[in-house]
Amino acid sequence: MIGRIAGRVEYKGDDHVLIDVRGVGYVVFCSDRTLAALPGPGEATALWTDLMVREDLLQLFGFTTLVEKEWHRLLMSVQGVGAKASLAILGTLGADGVSRAIALGDWNSVKAAKGIGPKTAQRVVNELKDKAPAVMAMGQSARPAVSCVDESNAAVIEPAPRPRAAPAPQAASAQAEALSALTNLGYSPGEAAGAVAQAAGEAPEAATADLIRAALRLLAPNG
């Protein structure tokens, strides 16, 4: 399994990038958003990757963060969502937008992605809503693959690491702690994630205690 690739950008296509790794060129398929974040030809870069292996096909898919990669894996687990559809959703919403839309049950946002119909969007939300808390808790800036690549040792392919978040910023840490607190109070992961996502959207810099209070108000019978 190729879990991360680092090297020099040779060119960027409409849906992929060619990365030269010590003389070997790897075609990596990416979302529009990820492609836009990559540097131009000749510059060093790195991506977290997921390798699709089929009987007649090998394809690499690239992501700027482990959170984006995790959402790709989960989206691909939904019936009717292939790699192209997953990248369309991530390209339209971004990893954080996917987290928020699924946590809030906002299938209309998912439906905004090219090629995603209402039934598929509803299926995505229904099947993944309870998985949103774990992905959100990974942190909004789990160690990016593309930052601070040293050209002298950039051409490295590493085995897939276990998803692990770097020290999260205060806002992401507060959301993860609020999620944990609400689930400990007996709320389902889906309910907790939806309330925390909405509270965080209204007050992005809120501390843990403030997020919990706001989420509890939203979860109250008349909230």
UniProtKB/TrEMBL annotation:
One of its GO terms (molecular function) is ATP binding. Residues 73-92, 108-127 form the Helix-hairpin-helix DNA-binding motif class domain. SUPFAM superfamilies: DNA helicase RuvA subunit, C-terminal domain, Nucleic acid-binding proteins, RuvA domain 2-like. Residues 172-223 are annotated as: Domain III. GO terms for cellular component: cytoplasm; Holliday junction helicase complex; Holliday junction resolvase complex. Residues 1-64 are annotated as: Domain I. Keywords: Cytoplasm, DNA damage, DNA recombination, DNA repair, DNA-binding. This is Holliday junction branch migration complex subunit RuvA. It is found in: Cytoplasm. Homotetramer. Forms an RuvA(8)-RuvB(12)-Holliday junction (HJ) complex. HJ DNA is sandwiched between 2 RuvA tetramers; dsDNA enters through RuvA and exits via RuvB. An RuvB hexamer assembles on each DNA strand where it exits the tetramer. Each RuvB hexamer is contacted by two RuvA subunits (via domain III) on 2 adjacent RuvB subunits; this complex drives branch migration. In the full resolvosome a probable DNA-RuvA(4)-RuvB(12)-RuvC(2) complex forms which resolves the HJ. GO terms for biological process: DNA recombination; DNA repair. It comes from the Bacteria. Belongs to the RuvA family. The RuvA-RuvB-RuvC complex processes Holliday junction (HJ) DNA during genetic recombination and DNA repair, while the RuvA-RuvB complex plays an important role in the rescue of blocked DNA replication forks via replication fork reversal (RFR). RuvA specifically binds to HJ cruciform DNA, conferring on it an open structure. The RuvB hexamer acts as an ATP-dependent pump, pulling dsDNA into and through the RuvAB complex. HJ branch migration allows RuvC to scan DNA until it finds its consensus sequence, where it cleaves and resolves the cruciform DNA. Has three domains with a flexible linker between the domains II and III and assumes an 'L' shape. Domain III is highly mobile and contacts RuvB. It comes from Thetidibacter halocola. Gene3D superfamilies: 5' to 3' exonuclease, C-terminal subdomain (1.10.150.20), DNA helicase RuvA subunit, C-terminal domain (1.10.8.10), Nucleic acid-binding proteins (2.40.50.140).
